[in-house]
């Protein structure tokens, strides 16, 4: 006989794995007891700089939960960014575990299989939005810095769509599709425990970056805000994030993130109302001049995501300047309400 536990932490172990790439210090792997085996949620990076490839840290974490590598029967990846997914292929080889990810992670896999195409696409985006030629290559190299930490490109052996109930041990975990930070992002939600495994959808001390990339989500910020509301409706009491320590008061955290994103949206909109501007000009004016390449590319890609939101709300539009760079101009004075929605007229 099995009993469903409402103890939020029973059979759940958080393992912080070191990363050390592009200012990401560590990532959490969560170990969930699954009968006499385990399911792990996210798995960290392949470490080309270490003789064991980073497996020692994974094994030590499993051991702390009372298990060994051979006990891993399933890997759920919240989203296919390399800090959460890089080691998945190696772990599948070693354990025979199945890999469950959202069906949209196929796009990430394609990108990793053709990194040159992805880099060229980024360079084109940056050119269209006014980034100088010398800076373009440097910024588009973000992916190049991550690639050595990806062991192999593996697609999901079971593709998730959201709405599934995963039976893990005696518990049911609902798969909640939460696009925004990544189009193929999922959270796992246990109604009985009131626990959310949030990946990078909800983080304790930073507002998760929401960035635009051609060929992915046309309006990722809108997706993100909708996903936040979908999670808030469930009222999680304990959040286990992809980075950092677990925290409570998810709804308060969500409200703070919503306020932060909408404030940024208003700021960008006001700047465009003052004078038509390119994305590069907006990023330079509104985000303190970023020095490091990964900060600068984040500022540009986040600005692009905010502009997309304003554009699909019918508030701004673009035109090409004589040099081919897009500039954005205001097309409406209709106010946005506190939820970032167009106020009813
Ligand atoms: Zn992450």
TrEMBL record:
InterPro entries: Metallo-B-lactamas (IPR001279), RibonucZ/Hydroxyglut_hydro (IPR036866), Sec-metab_biosynth-thioest (IPR050662), WH-like_DNA-bd_sf (IPR036388)
GO molecular function: hydrolase activity
Hydrolase among keywords: yes
CDD domains named among the record's database cross-references: TTHA1429-like_MBL-fold
Domain of life: Bacteria
Keyword Hydrolase included in the entry's annotation: yes
Residue ranges of every copy of the Metallo-beta-lactamase domain listed in the record: 26-243
Swiss-Prot/TrEMBL keywords: Hydrolase
Pfam family, one: Lactamase_B
PANTHER family: ENDORIBONUCLEASE LACTB2, METALLO-BETA-LACTAMASE SUPERFAMILY POTEIN
Official protein name in the record: Zn-dependent hydrolase
Source organism of this protein record: Pseudonocardia asaccharolytica DSM 44247 = NBRC 16224
Source species taxonomy: Bacteria, Bacillati, Actinomycetota, Actinomycetes, Pseudonocardiales
């Amino acid at each position: 006989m099995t009993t469903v536990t409402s103890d939020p932490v029973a059979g759940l172990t958080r393992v912080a794995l070191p990363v050390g790439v592009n200012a990401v210090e560590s990532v959490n792997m969560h170990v969930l007891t699954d009968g006499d085996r385990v399911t792990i949620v996210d798995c960290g990076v392949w470490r080309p700089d270490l003789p064991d490839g980073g497996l020692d840290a994974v094994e030590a974490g499993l051991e702390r939960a009372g298990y060994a590598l051979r006990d891993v029967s399933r890997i759920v990846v919240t989203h296919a960014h390399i800090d959460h997914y890089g080691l998945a292929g190696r772990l599948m080889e070693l354990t025979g575990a199945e890999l469950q990810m959202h069906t949209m992670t196929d796009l990430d896999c394609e990108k990793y299989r053709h990194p040159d195409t992805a880099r060229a696409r980024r360079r084109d985006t940056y050119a269209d939005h006014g980034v100088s030629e010398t800076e373009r290559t440097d910024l588009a190299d973000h992916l190049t810095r991550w690639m050595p930490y990806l062991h192999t490109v593996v697609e999901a052996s079971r593709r998730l769509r959201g709405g599934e109930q995963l039976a893990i041990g005696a518990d049911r975990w609902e798969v909640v599709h939460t696009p925004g930070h990544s189009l193929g992002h999922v959270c796992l939600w246990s109604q009985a425990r009131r626990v959310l495994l949030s990946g990078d959808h909800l983080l304790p001390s930073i507002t998760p970056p929401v960035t635009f990339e051609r060929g992915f989500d046309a309006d990722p910020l809108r997706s993100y805000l909708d996903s936040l509301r979908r999670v808030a409706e469930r009222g999680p009491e304990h959040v286990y994030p992809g980075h950092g320590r677990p925290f409570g008061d998810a709804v308060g955290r969500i409200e703070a993130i919503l306020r932060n994103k909408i404030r940024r949206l208003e700021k960008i909109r006001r700047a465009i109302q003052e004078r038509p501007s390119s994305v590069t000009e907006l990023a330079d004016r509104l985000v303190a001049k970023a020095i490091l390449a990964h900060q600068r590319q984040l500022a540009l890609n986040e600005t692009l995501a905010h502009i997309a939101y304003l554009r699909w709300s019918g508030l701004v539009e673009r035109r090409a300047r004589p040099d081919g760079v897009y500039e954005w101009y205001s097309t409406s004075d209709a106010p946005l309400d506190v939820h970032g929605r167009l106020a009813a007229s």
